[in-house]
Amino acid sequence: MDTRRAIVSMLRTPRLRMWKTRLEELKELALSAGYIIAGELIQTKPCPISSTLFGKGKIEELKIMAEENNVDTLIVWNTLKSIQKFNLERFVGVSVVDRYELVLEIFRRNAGDQLAKLQIELALLEKLIPYYRLRERLIHGSRDKPYFRAGGEYGWVPKVAWLRKRRKKIREEIEDMLNKKVAEIRRRKELGFRVVTLVGYYNAGKTSIFNRLTGETKPVSPAPFTTLSSKYSRLIGSENVLLVDTIGFVSDLDPRIISSFRINLEDMTEADMLVWVVDISDRPEMLELKISATARILKNVGLMDKDIIVAANKVDIATAPADVLRVIDELISKFSGRRLQIIPCSALSGRGLEMLASEIMRRL
User: Fold this and answer.
1) CB–CB of 350/303 below 8 Å?
2) Do 144 and 259 share a structural domain?
3) To bridge 282 with a disulfide, which of 104, 196, 286, 317 should be the other Cys (CB 3.0-4.6 Å)?
4) Taking the chain (364 residues) in consecutive chunks of 10 residues, what is each chunk's mean pLDDT?
5) Same domain for 339 and 218
6) β-sheet bridge partners, residue 6
């Protein structure tokens, strides 16, 4: 694993709720990506600076902090525009990675098959093409400008054109895979199979529950986003119920990342039922962040109207589980607009999983 040194930073606006919890999650993601956190900087402003995100004084602080702590990367919680990323790199003198790029960096570490790699590359290109175009134009534009009658072109044009061609090719490959995926799912349904998809935040225990209920041995890790490509397997004790393990969610997920993982979304869209896995051992503020983020994503992709069961996982290590279950019920009702059945369980001990499996089959 790399040992890059980084400063973690955030532009906090007055409307940003639970900013400390969001910053804490950013640090966890940075550590998972292999960074050593050498510093932290937060600025509170009514709105971001359009060209640099942070104010001039804070940028000078970042530059000094980077030099004093031998830092090579600035990690920013906020999603950066191309001009903000370019100017921060220029003024601070280190590589700049926002939350969007950090999540994809972790995805890339865990990508094990061609589909996952293509989806990650597409999501990166969606973000980086505008940035490269701006950077190359600002750095080389005046030098490489073609003269009248020369018939040449700007030096950056071929680079950006190649990236756009690559993006188009990846989109076509994923579209082809998507069509095959949908046809395969629908063929299974015609054969009488019912599909149940596990959804929820990363590290909630979806893969552990999947393994328990299917007898599979998919890799399980405390690192985020171990699962990137969906896997189908038959539910133990059933002839025609297929369980699907999918990619985990993360708060404030950029719509471009969601759209790049359309094949994973198709597993959720075509499902007859969703099992929403919640880690109830989390602290209250983190629990609220994760439930609100999951509910928002499910709403945005039109999945909140599906039949949903909540699997309240890690009940064996939760503090005051009865109280936590009441809190979860209130939070889910608040953010989803629905009252959902909650089944306390533990993927580690197996507690409650028989009840979960029975309820799945009863409903189907």
Assistant:
1) no
2) no
3) 286
4) 85 93 94 94 96 96 96 96 95 94 86 79 87 79 45 56 90 89 88 94 92 89 65 92 89 74 83 96 92 92 94 91 92 93 95 96 93
5) yes
6) 37, 73
- The residue assigned the tokens 């349904």 is 189
Q: Are residues 165 and 302 in the same domain?
A: no
Cα separation, 239 vs 210, in Å, equals: 16
**What's residue 228's pLDDT?**
58
**183 located within any domain:** no
Amino acid 229: pLDDT: 65
| Look-up of token digits 């530059």 | 63
- In degrees rounded to 5, what are phi and psi of residue 41? -140, 130
Q: 257 exposed, middle or buried (CB, 10 Å; 0-12, 13-18, 19+)? A: buried
pLDDT value, residue 213? 96
| Helix (H/G/I), strand (E/B), else coil: 77 | coil
Q: Give the C-alpha separation, 115 to 212, whole Å.
A: 26
Residues 244 and 323 in one domain: yes
- Give Rg (Cα) of the chain: 23
Cα dist. 125→89, 129, 161, 162, 233 in Å? Answer: 19, 6, 12, 11, 33
Residues 6+ apart with CB under 8 A from 163: 125, 128, 129, 132
- Residue 262 phi, psi dihedral angles, 5° rounding: -65, -30
The C-alpha atoms of residue 320 and residue 305 are separated, in whole angstroms, by: 31
Do 32 and 86 lie in a common domain?
A: yes
Q: Hey, what long-range contacts does 332-340 have (CB within 8 A, 24 or more apart)?
A: 332/276, 332/291, 332/295, 335/291, 335/292, 335/295, 335/296, 336/295, 336/298, 336/299, 336/304, 337/304, 338/304, 338/308, 340/276, 340/308, 340/309, 340/310
- At residue 267, the 3 state secondary structure works out as helix
DSSP helix/strand/coil, 300? helix
In this structure, the dihedral spanned by the alpha carbons of residues 184, 186, 188 and 192, taken in order and rounded to 10 degrees, is -170
Tokens of 108: 């890339």
118 with 95, same domain? Answer: no
With residue 278 as reference, give the H or E element that holds it: strand 273-279
